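Morning. Coffee machine broken again, so started the prediction first thing and wrote up yesterday's gels while waiting. Chain of 342 residues, entered below exactly as on the submission form.
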Amino acid sequence: MKLETDRREFLKLAGLGGGVVFASSLWGGALAGSSEDFHFVQLSDTHWGFEGPPNPDAKGTLPKAIEAVNALPRQPDFVVFTGDLTHTTDDGVKRRDRMKQFRDIAGKLRAKTVRFLPGEHDASLDRGEAYQENFGATHGAFDHKGVHFVVLDNVSDPGAAMGEAQLAWLKSDVAKLKPDAPIAVLTHRPLFDLYPEWDWATKDGAAALEILQPFKHVTVFYGHIHQEHHFKTGHIEHHAATSLIFPLPAPGSVPKRAPVPWDETQPYRGLGWRDVEAAPGAGTFTLEQKAIVPAAPRAVRISAKKFSYTPSEVRLKKGEPVVLELISEDRVHGFKLPAFDI
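Came back before lunch.
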Protein backbone atom coordinates (compact mmCIF):
# COMPACT_ATOMS: atom_id res chain seq x y z
CA MET A 1 0.00 0.00 0.00
CA LYS A 2 1.37 3.41 -0.96
CA LEU A 3 2.09 5.73 1.94
CA GLU A 4 2.19 9.44 1.32
CA THR A 5 2.17 12.68 3.24
CA ASP A 6 -0.18 15.22 1.64
CA ARG A 7 -0.11 18.68 3.21
CA ARG A 8 -2.11 20.28 0.42
CA GLU A 9 -5.30 19.05 2.05
CA PHE A 10 -4.43 20.84 5.28
CA LEU A 11 -6.18 24.17 5.07
CA LYS A 12 -4.80 25.81 8.16
CA LEU A 13 -2.08 25.28 10.74
CA ALA A 14 -1.75 28.20 13.14
CA GLY A 15 -1.20 29.05 16.78
CA LEU A 16 -4.27 30.05 18.75
CA GLY A 17 -4.81 30.45 22.47
CA GLY A 18 -1.78 28.46 23.54
CA GLY A 19 -2.63 25.52 21.28
CA VAL A 20 -2.52 24.55 17.64
CA VAL A 21 -5.52 24.59 15.33
CA PHE A 22 -5.51 22.09 12.48
CA ALA A 23 -8.34 22.43 9.97
CA SER A 24 -8.98 19.99 7.15
CA SER A 25 -11.69 19.27 4.63
CA LEU A 26 -14.58 17.61 6.38
CA TRP A 27 -15.63 15.83 3.24
CA GLY A 28 -12.13 14.40 2.90
CA GLY A 29 -12.18 13.25 6.50
CA ALA A 30 -14.23 11.03 8.71
CA LEU A 31 -16.86 13.52 9.77
CA ALA A 32 -18.66 13.86 6.46
CA GLY A 33 -22.38 13.27 6.44
CA SER A 34 -22.95 14.00 10.11
CA SER A 35 -26.34 15.57 10.72
CA GLU A 36 -25.34 17.88 13.61
CA ASP A 37 -22.37 19.88 14.82
CA PHE A 38 -20.60 18.20 17.71
CA HIS A 39 -17.22 17.95 19.37
CA PHE A 40 -15.29 15.43 21.40
CA VAL A 41 -12.06 15.50 23.39
CA GLN A 42 -9.15 13.11 22.89
CA LEU A 43 -6.69 12.51 25.72
CA SER A 44 -3.88 10.01 25.35
CA ASP A 45 -0.92 8.34 27.01
CA THR A 46 -1.54 9.39 30.59
CA HIS A 47 0.78 6.64 31.95
CA TRP A 48 -0.69 6.86 35.45
CA GLY A 49 1.89 5.42 37.87
CA PHE A 50 4.93 6.78 36.02
CA GLU A 51 7.55 8.53 38.12
CA GLY A 52 10.79 10.10 36.96
CA PRO A 53 12.67 13.23 35.83
CA PRO A 54 10.88 13.48 32.45
CA ASN A 55 7.86 14.70 34.43
CA PRO A 56 8.34 15.87 38.02
CA ASP A 57 4.60 16.59 38.13
CA ALA A 58 3.56 13.11 36.95
CA LYS A 59 0.68 12.97 39.42
CA GLY A 60 -0.50 16.46 38.51
CA THR A 61 -0.75 16.58 34.73
CA LEU A 62 -3.80 14.30 34.40
CA PRO A 63 -5.85 16.19 37.03
CA LYS A 64 -4.82 19.49 35.41
CA ALA A 65 -5.96 18.25 32.00
CA ILE A 66 -9.29 17.09 33.42
CA GLU A 67 -9.75 20.47 35.09
CA ALA A 68 -9.08 22.17 31.73
CA VAL A 69 -11.59 19.95 29.92
CA ASN A 70 -14.19 20.58 32.62
CA ALA A 71 -13.67 24.32 32.15
CA LEU A 72 -14.64 24.22 28.46
CA PRO A 73 -17.57 26.58 27.82
CA ARG A 74 -19.39 23.76 26.00
CA GLN A 75 -18.86 20.27 27.33
CA PRO A 76 -17.85 17.66 24.74
CA ASP A 77 -20.31 15.06 23.53
CA PHE A 78 -17.83 12.50 24.82
CA VAL A 79 -14.23 12.16 25.96
CA VAL A 80 -11.98 9.35 24.72
CA PHE A 81 -8.65 8.17 26.15
CA THR A 82 -6.66 6.51 23.35
CA GLY A 83 -4.51 4.15 25.38
CA ASP A 84 -1.66 3.83 27.84
CA LEU A 85 -3.94 4.86 30.65
CA THR A 86 -1.42 3.46 33.13
CA HIS A 87 2.32 2.87 33.14
CA THR A 88 3.45 -0.71 32.70
CA THR A 89 4.32 -2.91 35.68
CA ASP A 90 5.05 -6.63 36.06
CA ASP A 91 3.06 -6.64 39.29
CA GLY A 92 -0.52 -7.66 38.45
CA VAL A 93 -1.87 -6.30 41.74
CA LYS A 94 -0.17 -2.94 41.20
CA ARG A 95 -1.43 -2.86 37.60
CA ARG A 96 -5.03 -3.24 38.75
CA ASP A 97 -4.53 -0.69 41.52
CA ARG A 98 -3.23 1.87 39.03
CA MET A 99 -6.21 1.27 36.78
CA LYS A 100 -8.62 1.84 39.67
CA GLN A 101 -6.80 5.06 40.60
CA PHE A 102 -6.93 6.22 36.99
CA ARG A 103 -10.63 5.34 36.72
CA ASP A 104 -11.41 7.36 39.85
CA ILE A 105 -9.55 10.42 38.53
CA ALA A 106 -11.15 10.14 35.07
CA GLY A 107 -14.51 9.89 36.81
CA LYS A 108 -14.16 13.58 37.72
CA LEU A 109 -14.77 14.56 34.10
CA ARG A 110 -18.04 16.47 33.65
CA ALA A 111 -18.72 14.92 30.24
CA LYS A 112 -21.60 12.45 30.36
CA THR A 113 -19.80 9.84 28.25
CA VAL A 114 -16.15 8.81 28.71
CA ARG A 115 -14.64 6.05 26.56
CA PHE A 116 -11.39 4.17 27.04
CA LEU A 117 -8.96 2.28 24.80
CA PRO A 118 -6.05 0.16 26.03
CA GLY A 119 -2.41 0.84 25.26
CA GLU A 120 0.40 -1.70 25.34
CA HIS A 121 1.30 -0.48 28.83
CA ASP A 122 -2.19 -1.47 29.97
CA ALA A 123 -2.69 -4.73 28.10
CA SER A 124 0.31 -6.41 26.50
CA LEU A 125 1.61 -8.22 29.61
CA ASP A 126 -1.67 -10.01 30.35
CA ARG A 127 -3.41 -9.74 26.95
CA GLY A 128 -5.83 -7.16 28.32
CA GLU A 129 -7.14 -9.17 31.27
CA ALA A 130 -6.79 -6.43 33.91
CA TYR A 131 -7.94 -3.78 31.45
CA GLN A 132 -11.14 -5.67 30.65
CA GLU A 133 -11.87 -6.11 34.35
CA ASN A 134 -11.82 -2.34 34.81
CA PHE A 135 -12.93 -0.90 31.46
CA GLY A 136 -14.64 -3.62 29.44
CA ALA A 137 -14.06 -4.77 25.86
CA THR A 138 -10.85 -3.76 24.09
CA HIS A 139 -12.48 -3.20 20.70
CA GLY A 140 -15.93 -2.43 19.32
CA ALA A 141 -17.96 0.23 17.55
CA PHE A 142 -20.53 2.96 18.22
CA ASP A 143 -22.42 5.58 16.22
CA HIS A 144 -22.68 9.27 17.07
CA LYS A 145 -24.68 11.88 15.15
CA GLY A 146 -24.14 10.26 11.78
CA VAL A 147 -20.53 9.15 12.28
CA HIS A 148 -19.58 5.49 12.72
CA PHE A 149 -16.76 5.14 15.26
CA VAL A 150 -14.61 2.00 15.18
CA VAL A 151 -12.41 1.10 18.17
CA LEU A 152 -9.48 -1.19 17.34
CA ASP A 153 -7.18 -3.08 19.72
CA ASN A 154 -3.62 -3.31 18.40
CA VAL A 155 -1.95 -3.63 21.82
CA SER A 156 -3.28 -6.68 23.69
CA ASP A 157 -1.22 -8.94 21.43
CA PRO A 158 2.43 -8.50 22.54
CA GLY A 159 3.37 -8.78 18.86
CA ALA A 160 1.48 -5.54 18.06
CA ALA A 161 -1.09 -7.25 15.85
CA MET A 162 -4.88 -7.15 15.80
CA GLY A 163 -5.20 -10.73 14.66
CA GLU A 164 -7.44 -12.52 12.17
CA ALA A 165 -10.48 -12.61 14.45
CA GLN A 166 -10.53 -8.84 15.00
CA LEU A 167 -9.90 -8.14 11.32
CA ALA A 168 -12.82 -10.41 10.45
CA TRP A 169 -14.96 -8.49 12.94
CA LEU A 170 -13.89 -5.16 11.37
CA LYS A 171 -14.78 -6.40 7.89
CA SER A 172 -18.18 -7.55 9.13
CA ASP A 173 -18.79 -4.30 11.05
CA VAL A 174 -18.19 -1.93 8.13
CA ALA A 175 -19.89 -4.22 5.59
CA LYS A 176 -23.25 -2.75 6.59
CA LEU A 177 -22.10 0.81 5.83
CA LYS A 178 -22.51 2.72 2.59
CA PRO A 179 -19.33 3.63 0.65
CA ASP A 180 -19.75 7.33 1.55
CA ALA A 181 -20.42 6.66 5.24
CA PRO A 182 -18.20 8.73 7.56
CA ILE A 183 -15.94 6.48 9.64
CA ALA A 184 -13.70 7.55 12.53
CA VAL A 185 -11.22 4.95 13.78
CA LEU A 186 -9.91 5.14 17.35
CA THR A 187 -6.81 3.13 18.17
CA HIS A 188 -3.56 3.33 20.12
CA ARG A 189 -0.72 2.44 17.77
CA PRO A 190 -0.56 3.92 14.26
CA LEU A 191 -2.07 1.62 11.64
CA PHE A 192 0.66 2.53 9.13
CA ASP A 193 4.41 1.96 9.40
CA LEU A 194 5.40 5.29 10.93
CA TYR A 195 8.68 4.02 12.40
CA PRO A 196 8.71 0.25 13.10
CA GLU A 197 12.18 0.47 14.66
CA TRP A 198 10.57 2.29 17.58
CA ASP A 199 7.47 0.07 17.68
CA TRP A 200 5.50 2.81 15.93
CA ALA A 201 3.50 0.50 13.68
CA THR A 202 0.89 -2.27 13.72
CA LYS A 203 1.97 -5.60 12.28
CA ASP A 204 -1.29 -6.15 10.39
CA GLY A 205 -2.29 -2.50 10.15
CA ALA A 206 -2.13 -2.62 6.35
CA ALA A 207 -4.83 -5.32 6.40
CA ALA A 208 -7.13 -3.03 8.43
CA LEU A 209 -6.48 -0.12 6.07
CA GLU A 210 -7.26 -2.35 3.10
CA ILE A 211 -10.66 -3.11 4.64
CA LEU A 212 -11.29 0.61 5.20
CA GLN A 213 -9.90 1.79 1.86
CA PRO A 214 -13.15 1.38 -0.15
CA PHE A 215 -14.88 3.93 2.10
CA LYS A 216 -14.56 7.53 0.97
CA HIS A 217 -14.45 9.23 4.37
CA VAL A 218 -12.12 7.64 6.92
CA THR A 219 -10.03 9.31 9.62
CA VAL A 220 -7.88 7.60 12.25
CA PHE A 221 -7.22 9.13 15.68
CA TYR A 222 -4.42 7.48 17.66
CA GLY A 223 -1.82 8.04 20.39
CA HIS A 224 1.31 6.05 21.33
CA ILE A 225 3.93 8.37 19.80
CA HIS A 226 3.51 11.18 22.38
CA GLN A 227 3.40 13.99 19.82
CA GLU A 228 1.12 15.58 17.25
CA HIS A 229 1.56 14.00 13.83
CA HIS A 230 -0.52 14.09 10.61
CA PHE A 231 -0.26 11.58 7.79
CA LYS A 232 -2.26 10.16 4.88
CA THR A 233 -2.41 6.67 3.37
CA GLY A 234 -4.24 7.24 0.13
CA HIS A 235 -7.30 9.25 1.16
CA ILE A 236 -7.31 8.01 4.79
CA GLU A 237 -6.14 10.64 7.27
CA HIS A 238 -4.19 9.74 10.44
CA HIS A 239 -3.84 12.14 13.40
CA ALA A 240 -1.68 11.37 16.42
CA ALA A 241 -2.29 13.12 19.74
CA THR A 242 0.16 14.51 22.27
CA SER A 243 0.78 12.77 25.58
CA LEU A 244 -0.15 13.81 29.11
CA ILE A 245 3.07 12.50 30.71
CA PHE A 246 6.14 13.28 28.55
CA PRO A 247 6.83 14.04 24.87
CA LEU A 248 8.90 11.77 22.63
CA PRO A 249 11.25 12.88 19.82
CA ALA A 250 10.20 12.97 16.19
CA PRO A 251 10.46 9.57 14.50
CA GLY A 252 14.06 8.68 13.72
CA SER A 253 15.36 12.10 14.78
CA VAL A 254 17.68 10.63 17.42
CA PRO A 255 19.51 7.28 17.65
CA LYS A 256 17.45 6.02 20.59
CA ARG A 257 13.85 6.68 21.53
CA ALA A 258 13.69 8.31 24.96
CA PRO A 259 11.47 10.90 26.69
CA VAL A 260 12.28 14.52 25.90
CA PRO A 261 13.83 16.00 29.09
CA TRP A 262 11.68 18.23 31.27
CA ASP A 263 12.40 21.91 30.68
CA GLU A 264 11.99 23.92 33.87
CA THR A 265 11.82 27.14 31.85
CA GLN A 266 8.93 25.73 29.81
CA PRO A 267 7.12 23.23 32.04
CA TYR A 268 4.53 20.98 30.37
CA ARG A 269 6.01 21.78 26.98
CA GLY A 270 4.91 19.19 24.42
CA LEU A 271 2.10 17.89 26.62
CA GLY A 272 -1.58 18.43 26.03
CA TRP A 273 -4.92 17.18 24.78
CA ARG A 274 -7.07 17.59 21.69
CA ASP A 275 -10.49 19.07 21.02
CA VAL A 276 -12.11 17.80 17.81
CA GLU A 277 -15.01 19.86 16.51
CA ALA A 278 -17.18 18.86 13.55
CA ALA A 279 -19.02 21.50 11.55
CA PRO A 280 -20.88 19.52 8.88
CA GLY A 281 -22.74 22.57 7.60
CA ALA A 282 -19.47 24.37 6.89
CA GLY A 283 -17.84 21.26 5.45
CA THR A 284 -14.92 21.30 7.88
CA PHE A 285 -13.70 19.83 11.13
CA THR A 286 -11.12 21.33 13.44
CA LEU A 287 -8.49 19.62 15.57
CA GLU A 288 -7.21 21.95 18.26
CA GLN A 289 -4.27 20.96 20.42
CA LYS A 290 -4.71 22.31 23.94
CA ALA A 291 -1.89 22.89 26.39
CA ILE A 292 -2.22 21.42 29.90
CA VAL A 293 -1.23 24.77 31.34
CA PRO A 294 -1.62 27.53 28.72
CA ALA A 295 1.29 29.93 28.56
CA ALA A 296 0.65 33.32 30.13
CA PRO A 297 0.01 36.00 27.48
CA ARG A 298 2.83 38.43 26.76
CA ALA A 299 2.59 41.71 28.65
CA VAL A 300 3.19 44.94 26.70
CA ARG A 301 3.76 48.07 28.80
CA ILE A 302 3.09 51.48 27.24
CA SER A 303 3.86 54.74 29.05
CA ALA A 304 2.09 57.98 28.07
CA LYS A 305 3.45 61.46 28.80
CA LYS A 306 2.69 64.81 27.12
CA PHE A 307 1.06 63.16 24.12
CA SER A 308 4.00 60.87 23.46
CA TYR A 309 4.14 57.13 24.01
CA THR A 310 6.96 54.77 24.94
CA PRO A 311 7.31 52.60 23.00
CA SER A 312 5.84 54.61 20.13
CA GLU A 313 5.02 51.47 18.14
CA VAL A 314 4.13 47.94 19.17
CA ARG A 315 4.16 45.05 16.67
CA LEU A 316 2.06 41.98 17.45
CA LYS A 317 1.46 38.69 15.67
CA LYS A 318 -2.04 38.16 14.35
CA GLY A 319 -3.98 36.04 16.83
CA GLU A 320 -1.42 36.47 19.62
CA PRO A 321 -3.06 37.12 23.00
CA VAL A 322 -1.40 39.99 24.89
CA VAL A 323 -1.98 42.06 27.98
CA LEU A 324 -1.64 45.83 27.44
CA GLU A 325 -0.47 47.79 30.48
CA LEU A 326 -1.19 51.50 29.94
CA ILE A 327 0.49 53.91 32.33
CA SER A 328 0.08 57.68 32.52
CA GLU A 329 3.11 59.52 33.86
CA ASP A 330 1.66 63.03 34.07
CA ARG A 331 -2.12 63.40 33.67
CA VAL A 332 -5.37 61.66 32.73
CA HIS A 333 -5.19 60.34 29.16
CA GLY A 334 -7.86 58.89 26.89
CA PHE A 335 -7.44 55.67 24.99
CA LYS A 336 -8.99 54.74 21.68
CA LEU A 337 -8.53 51.73 19.38
CA PRO A 338 -10.86 52.38 16.41
CA ALA A 339 -10.01 49.22 14.48
CA PHE A 340 -11.33 47.15 17.40
CA ASP A 341 -14.20 49.51 18.23
CA ILE A 342 -12.63 50.24 21.65
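The helical segments are 61-70, 92-106, 120-123, 129-135, 164-174, 205-212. Going to sketch it on the whiteboard this afternoon.
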